[in-house]
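SAMPLE LOG
Freezer: B-3
Tube label: C17
Construct: single chain, 469 aa
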Amino acid sequence: MSSSTAPSPDGSAPSSDSAAQSSGGTAPEAHGPSGDPCAGPDRALWSVDEHLDDILAAVAPLEPIELQLPDAQGCVLVEDVTVPVALPPFDNSSMDGYAVRVADVAGASEEFPAVLTVIGDVAAGAGGLPEVGPGQAARIMTGAPLPPGAEAVVPVEWTDGGTGGGAAGGMRPASAAPEGAGGEVRVHRPADDRAHVRARGSDVQAGELALTAGTVLGPPQIGLLAAIGRGTVRVRPRPRVVVISTGSELTQPGEPLADGQIYDSNSFALAAAARDAGALAYRVPAVADDAESLRAAIEDQLIRADLIVTTGGVSVGAYDVVKEALTADGEVDFRKLAMQPGKPQGFGMIGPEHTPLLALPGNPVSSYVSFELFVRPAIRALMGLADQGDLHRPRVRAILKADRALTSPAGRRQFLRGTYDAESGTVTPVGGAGSHLIAALAHADALLVVPEEATGVEPGTEVEVVLIG
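STRUCTURE (predicted):
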């Protein structure tokens, strides 16, 4: 997380973010904002949208593969799936009770119960079903197929359970009371035709569309695929994201801190964010401020990476090694963005497979905000999600609730941490604008957006809010 305290390019005194993250490198004019070449230092700034568009234009969805169901969770389906068999595949009971003919229990009551002969048990998975004739009943379990001749199921609580007494509270286990499959049962209530019967195909019919291409496979979808007999499914795999933090000052949590050291929080936060976005995340222990070591670390990770994220070392300091390590071959372009926090950014395609690499600032808030704006959409694009609602976090409009007006640097899109109250439609800032305030970030569930043209926002003003919680 090396940093510099150079003044911002527009000549103003550095803010808490720009002081720690002044950018190095300028975007090529062919990619960056157009304008008068004499317009001043800010002509080299990229907008947030331009940087994101450049990333998404370069990131292609991963190639589909066939996966076993347990491995397909979180993946995106690439084919429509139709139902080969109806669900349920046969009429079955929704209750533990007795399968009966409707006419045999018509008018049944506590005072005048219908007395039926029990001809056997029908358990779930049973074959060779008994046929229920007039004056007969079969003891049936939940999920068991409705035997021929039966028209309805009366719950065991509507009967004496074959005991000859009052209302039964349940059935004794068949192993402990095998006699329950015979004898007589008294039914105390009538049942309508098809009562407590789940009809064949009442969930889905054979030939119907079960899931459409583009569906993200969560637990219910995996369950449906299993229920219709699919053992494998064709999907785009979850992207493998490698997170590498840089900085000789970084120590792993759980280890003692030496003088001048801090704990590496970025790699843990970004790896967690990658998993939250749908990726398989691999976290690399912090790399020291040495360009050769960083190049070697990245080279080692390319074999298992669909996307590499680095954090730190992208500013203009003497120890900002990400720029030093990745600028020489021209594969990664380091840019200044018109945003706060997160002004310095890097993006490129590296290695023989042209693996995308996003280089984020080192300050914790800067790196996390940058992840939400740029890395998360890239992960979702790799997954094969194309709709804007799938690529990006939800955005809403809310009324600013604050004690005083917010200030924002001219020409910068500012992202402040906040808490969003959906019931009142308000958003309240949390903490200050400093890019090191990780405690405030931990209590935020939204990013409050102040547009480039605004230098202040008064309480009561409607603002855009990115929901991250």
